[in-house]
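Need residues for this backbone.
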């Protein structure tokens, strides 16, 4: 089976290498937004996609002022739910079509950006339902211009090939994955992440770190994805504690947005691994926030891989200047693992998740392995017993024990 999986991973690597994944044009700050708006033809209406909370918090205020100053006609769709549904996509599409919009400006977290991608996809795939866009390469048509402005530093959705949507009828979550879903433009505005609470800054930041590490230690990395992963890890190790402690530090906030963007570029080419495979099951069964689930699982999964990933971890340690060149790979890897563990402690990431139920562990592990095999090019394969052991590591056995352990 392992041989079959590796053949599949090799084929994935060849597809990414041969076809190539586009990169959004990258702009920085409100100056970057003003620059992008100058490229937009004033007679073409824009659909602004966001959620109600961001709108009410005034996060869009400056952006909407800039749109008006440039005399650009815009229409608002702000009903995107925290887990966007098919109805959100369809309702956004109604506004897009009825107002004869020619492009989309999406401002929000991963949910908003994913919803905007699917509105764009449906606008060029009028005969296909949102459900029919599920899976690989179901769009294959150029989307209208889509400018993505993330308000959290973590998902990297502003540069990835995927969009996730919920189907309330079947109570399932599914992803559309297509090179056409990469936004045409991305703008990173540090001020928009200033009001993000510290615990969300922590969890989303570790989500980005996990994207970078899993893509780097996986088996299908290319020079480009490896470089982006290393840049992201270095930025996160240096800036996440600052962004967590001092949310108003705009330099740290901007560096975290850049790190998330780079990590997104890395994992959209080189995929993720068991941290994500298991975390997705916690999200599906208990509603555990994605970043938190990844944060709790990162160390147990890295420790499971063991010496097989020491050379890759040593590369990362060297790049981040954590070690001396003459040290062994083992020492370098251990130094990096220690640094990550210290970072998790500094930003108060728990070691366990109280929502996990003992009776669910077997099924959670089965589902995680089903997701990972063969799609994720993991460095070492995990079996059912090993996966259950990792879930047990982050499971609280008794409420009285929770305080002591977590
Ligand atoms: Fe993630």
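Answer:
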């Amino acid at each position: 089976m392992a041989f079959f999986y590796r053949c599949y991973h090799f084929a994935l690597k060849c597809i990414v290498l041969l076809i190539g994944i586009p990169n959004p044009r990258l702009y920085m700050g409100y100056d970057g937004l003003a620059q992008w708006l100058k490229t937009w033809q004033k007679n073409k209406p824009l659909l602004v996609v966001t959620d109600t909370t961001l709108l009410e918090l005034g996060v869009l205020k400056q952006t909407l002022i800039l749109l008006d100053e440039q005399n650009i006609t815009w229409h608002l769709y702000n009903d995107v739910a925290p887990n966007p549904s098919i109805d959100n996509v369809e309702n956004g599409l109604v506004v897009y079509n009825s107002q004869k919009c020619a492009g989309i400006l999406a401002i929000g977290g991963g949910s908003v950006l994913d919803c905007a991608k699917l509105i764009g996809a449906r606008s060029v795939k009028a005969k296909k339902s949102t459900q029919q866009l599920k899976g690989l390469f179901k769009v294959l048509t150029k989307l209208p211009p889509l400018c993505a402005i993330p308000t959290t530093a973590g998902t990297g959705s502003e540069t990835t090939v995927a969009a996730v949507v919920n189907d309330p009828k079947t109570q399932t979550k599914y992803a559309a994955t297509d090179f056409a879903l990469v936004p045409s433009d991305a703008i990173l505005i540090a001020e928009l992440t200033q009001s993000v609470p510290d615990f969300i800054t922590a969890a989303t930041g570790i989500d980005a770190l996990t994207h970078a590490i899993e893509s780097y230690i996986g088996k299908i990395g290319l020079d480009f994805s490896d470089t982006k992963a290393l840049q992201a890890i270095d930025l996160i190790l240096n800036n996440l504690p600052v962004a967590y402690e001092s949310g108003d530090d705009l330099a740290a906030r901007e560096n975290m947005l850049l790190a998330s963007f780079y990590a997104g570029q890395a994992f959209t080419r080189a995929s993720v691994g068991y941290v994500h495979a298991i975390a997705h099951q916690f999200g599906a069964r208990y509603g555990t926030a994605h970043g938190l689930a990844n944060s709790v699982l990162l160390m147990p999964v890295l420790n499971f891989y063991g010496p097989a990933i020491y050379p890759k971890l040593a590369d990362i340690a060297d790049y981040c200047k954590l070690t001396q060149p003459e040290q062994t790979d083992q020492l370098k890897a251990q130094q990096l693992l220690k640094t990550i563990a210290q970072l998790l402690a500094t930003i108060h990431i728990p070691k366990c998740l109280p929502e996990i139920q003992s009776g669910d562990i077997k099924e959670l592990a089965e589902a995680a392995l089903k997701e990972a095999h063969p799609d994720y090019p993991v460095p070492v394969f995990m079996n059912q017993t090993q996966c259950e052991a990792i879930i047990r590591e982050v499971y609280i056995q008794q409420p009285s024990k929770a305080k002591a352990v977590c």
